[in-house]
Amino acid sequence: MAPVLGLAWAAPLRAADIVWTNTAGGNWGVAANWQPNAIPGPSDSVWITNNGTYTNTLNVTSTVATLTLGGASGVQILHLQGPNKLTLTGAGLGKTTNGIFRLAGRLDLPGSLVLNGPLVWREGGGIFGSGSVRLNGVSSIEALSNIRLSGCTLVNAGVLNWSGGFLNTTNGTVISNAPAAVIDIRGDVDTKADQGDYPGLFLNAGLLRKSVGTAPESTRIRETFHNSGVVELLAGQLFLDAGSSSSGSNWVGAGATLGFMGGTNRLGASSAVAGPGNVQFESGYTDIGGRYAVTGTNTVGWYGSNVFRRPGLTLNALKVAGVNAMADFLTGENVSLQRLELANGMVGGTDDLTITTNALLWNGGGFQGSGRVSCHAGIVMNGISGMDLLGRTVVNHGLFAWNDGMLTTGLGSVLSNAPGGTVLIADAVGGTLAGPAPRGTIVNAGWMQKIGTNTHLTYFSDNFLNQGTLEVEGGWFRCWQTFTNAAGLTRLFAGSIFELRAGGLVAGGVLEGDGLVVGAVTNSAVVSPGRPLGRLTIDGNYIQTAAGTLAIDLGGVATNLYDRLQITNTSRSATLAGTVRATLVDDFMPVSNDVFTVLTVAPGTRSGTFSSLAHRSFLAMTAEYTATNASLRVTNVAPAPMLRAPAMAWGGATTDIGGNTIWRLYPKLTWPAMAGTQYRLLHTTNVASTNWSVWPADSGPPLHLPEYITATGSVMTVEGPAIGLRIRPPLSLEFTTTIEPAHFYRLEFGP
After folding, report:
1. Coil, helix or strand for 448?
2. Comparing 155-169, 399-413, 527-541, 719-733, which segment has the lowest mean pLDDT?
3. How confident is the model over 359-388, as a mean pLDDT?
4. Average pLDDT value for residue range 719-740
5. CB–CB of 338/317 below 8 Å?
6. Average pLDDT of 275-304?
7. pLDDT tens, 48-101?
């Protein structure tokens, strides 16, 4: 029979057309509600198309061939009530937007269902089978409990608002959001594959939006996710758990988190991830070949791995905080970060990284690959777990607070403290361990300080190069490989231990202090015991080359008032060459026959001698040697520099073009001296002034007197340039003008 009033078209008759006639509403399982008066059967075509507002409650299990829903006016609701089941073996059509399919039971689809009106999914139930459901209207999932998709394809071509329920998916389910369609997630809801089942597919070619959500709850998509449209995450958390691919865009709003949480995720060259929110990488691999401009926090967590490939990367904050976590940078550019935190895992790749605003927080994990990591705001190392530096160069430009932890280094890595940088090593810090060959290098070009007691050991398994200032203020500082002081200063405080297992080379700069060096030292620059006065002890062989200098400060004749270098322990030796330089401090003035034992080898032996002895010119000194020591003896001291009253003489009369005779006043200065001593004359025109200048200044020919004057005998006389004028006009017997300013003189020893 033909459909009754409200049917806009006639479908081809199958076994029977069964038309709903009860516009007041009622149950599917009542024959009187249908025309003809029969409950629809497996071969029937069902029509719920009469106008009016009513609900057809499917209160029985039923199988039909086709289904048409929706009239020209009113609201026609088909309510599939749980736990009942409707099996649709052919095609279903929600013909108009007035037809509402309310799902609470089970819908089996060997065939297909197209809904132009809403699907309202509230009370549970599910959709099963190999068929498909297409939603062209404004639909909603508001389930209060778990709901299920099994084996079928759900296509949203309209608007789907999802605000409640966990959507369990099995048997290769496909969820598809068509171009221009919208799925709006308005709560913390999930898709959830049954345990042991293979994930299905979630295809987004339209707009997938999460507009409502609160952390720590989240929405998890456990199907493999393919995005060719737009993902817009405005609130809460959206996690992709089964891998993904993307040629579309992803927007992460402020406070929201997008997570690539499992499987393999490939963001193609045309993809984009941007926004002020956060991104998390965990339990999977993510290859980012598209534009990436996330200004929130990017976290690589437990077994997460990601690689950034595209230039123009904007990544303000990165946290690598998971076991076996990895973040690789392969953009071919210098990548700038405001903040980087390492708790576990590694940062790798070949790009140079610059950390600009916050200190690198290094609590575990580390760096590998190649390239440079420049830490402009410093480093804080707390060493909660193992730390690694393999291959890369890490440069500190700020304050590096090494509070705890061991750093494993290798593959030619470099840990560098730049000029202007500061490294503070706490008392119990371990230092570095040897990793894969070749060994790493520690470079200090700034200021590095180790504190603690001698039971607090810091040791480095790398070659150590000092070009700045290294201070061992306390504790035990051990270098397993060669230590080289190439420039700058290595300073040892009393009570500190500086252990050089492979020896130390003072190739430039200065090694100074009054601590203990354990190990051999080769001096080709300057070794200066004391700070400034004291004893430097070396438990190892000491070799001073022809380029080396032993710098000794003399402040008195008592052993605690001058510097000493002591070589100690059995079978140690000192081999001498180069220069010993004596400097007077604290206004000390030695006298003849004062002796200073500046080097002691006990119980070892000394060989060689200093080839030169440098000291102030007013001293005469000699070096003396025994089998176990070297001493300096004062053989003569120049008398204290004392000027006699200047002798003044007028002379050098000349006549100017006006016929005036000009006489000049020349001073002559005399003082007792010691041959070979250097002196310097100073003068001022105001005895109360502190501004004394060298005198006589070079006034040109014929004087050309040097700043330092070397005495050639026991009395020195110097005639300086004119200091006054007398002018006598022509035919006059009197001087009409006399210019004779006051001059004061001072004499001091030269270098």
Report:
1. strand
2. 719-733
3. 93
4. 82
5. yes
6. 96
7. 999 999 999 999 999 999 999 999 999 999 999 989 999 999 999 999 999 999
| 738 CB neighbour count, 10 Å cutoff | 11
Tell me 560's DSSP state: G
The per-residue pLDDT for range 544-576, each reduced to its tens digit, is 999 999 999 999 999 999 999 999 988 899 999
Tokens 């009570």 -> residue:
495
Phi, psi of 559 (to 5 degrees): -65, -25
pLDDT of residue 8: 38
Terminus-to-terminus CA distance in the chain, angstroms? 127
Is 188:217 a contact under the CB 8 Å cutoff? Answer: yes
Residue 33's SS3 state is helix
Residue 689 has pLDDT above 90, yes or no: no
- Burial class (CB within 10 angstroms; exposed 0-12, middle 13-18, buried 19+) of 584: middle
Predicted local confidence at residue 704, as pLDDT? 60
- Calculate the CA 502 to chain-centre distance: 31
Q: CB under 8 Å to 137, separation ≥6 — which residues?
A: 94, 97, 115, 116, 117, 118, 119, 158, 159
Dihedrals φ, ψ of 561, to 5°?
Answer: -110, 5
Closest by alpha carbon to 19, among 5, 109, 91, 90? 5
Task: Extract the tokens encoding 442.
Answer: 């520690």
**Helix or strand run (H / E) with residue 631:** strand 629-637
Q: At 422, list the tokens.
A: 């500061």
CA distances from 467 to 34, 181, 506 (A): 97, 64, 11
What value, to the nearest 5°, has the Cα angle with vertex 729 and ends 726 and 732? 105
What confidence tens digit (pLDDT) does each residue in 690-717 have? 788 887 765 555 556 678 889 999 999 9
* Residue 6, pLDDT above cutoff 60: no
Rounded Cα distance, 665 and 667, in Å: 7
Looking at the predicted structure, is the pLDDT value of residue 614 above 90? yes
CB-based contacts of 606: which residues, under 8 Å, 6+ apart? 573, 574, 575, 576, 599, 625, 626, 627, 628, 629, 630
Residue 195 has pLDDT above 90, yes or no: no
Name the residue with tokens 């200032």.
469
Tokens 């070749």 identify what position? 438
DSSP assignment of 139-187 equals: EEEE-SS-EEEES-EEEESSEEEEEE--EEEESS-EEEE-TT-EEEEES
pLDDT, greater one: 171 or 66:
66
CA count, 13 A, side-chain hemisphere, 527: 32
Beta strands 744-749 and 678-684 are antiparallel
Which run of H or of E encompasses 526? strand 526-529
Identify the helix (H) or strand (E) that includes residue 537.
strand 535-539
The identity of residue 37, as a single letter, is N
Query: What b/e sequence results for 145-182 when a residue is b if at least 16 CB atoms lie within 10 Å of its CB, and e otherwise?
Result: eebbbbbbbbbbbbbbbbbbbebbbbbbbbbbbbeebb
User: How far is it between the farthest Cα atoms of the chain?
Assistant: 159
Residues 228, 153: Cα–Cα separation, whole Å: 18
Q: Are the C-beta atoms of residues 313 and 334 closer than 8 Å to each other? A: no
How far is Cα 729 from Cα 161, in angstroms, rounded to an integer? 116
Confidence (pTM): 0.84
